[in-house]
From TrEMBL:
It comes from Corchorus capsularis (Jute). Residues 1-71 form the MATH domain. This is TRAF-like protein. InterPro entries: MATH/TRAF_dom, TRAF-like. Transmembrane segments: none annotated. Gene3D superfamilies: Apoptosis, Tumor Necrosis Factor Receptor Associated Protein 2, Chain A (2.60.210.10). Pfam families: MATH_2. The lineage of its organism: Eukaryota, Viridiplantae, Streptophyta, Embryophyta, Tracheophyta.
Length: 98
């Protein structure tokens, strides 16, 4: 992504159960964020307590854990400077989603 662009992403992030087939202890959070080259994003300020993760019987197995990320939607936008004139040509029309 270059400067002058930003990306909107809706996503789900999960820590998966490594023991049970049905992912009994799967922990999931949804997110909705804007990202750009000029602003750094660090994710969730809180996802799971470290003690809960370490004491889990199925989230960490043989010093490994499985993290799953699902991108639900993603779109790009151009960041306009305050001094730029607006024009319909700046943003091409997009076809409707299928």
């Amino acid at each position: 992504m270059s400067f002058g662009q930003k990306m909107h992403v809706e996503f789900k992030i999960s820590i998966n159960d490594l023991v049970h087939e049905n992912q009994y202890e799967k922990i999931t959070k949804r997110g909705d964020a804007w990202f750009s080259a000029s602003e750094k994003a660090w994710g969730f300020p809180y996802f799971i307590k470290l003690d809960d993760l370490q004491n889990s019987k199925s989230l960490i197995l043989r010093d490994a854990m499985e993290i799953e990320l699902q991108i639900l939607s993603m779109s790009m936008a151009r960041i306009k400077d305050d001094f730029e004139e607006e024009s319909d040509d700046d943003f091409p029309s997009m076809p409707p989603p299928m």
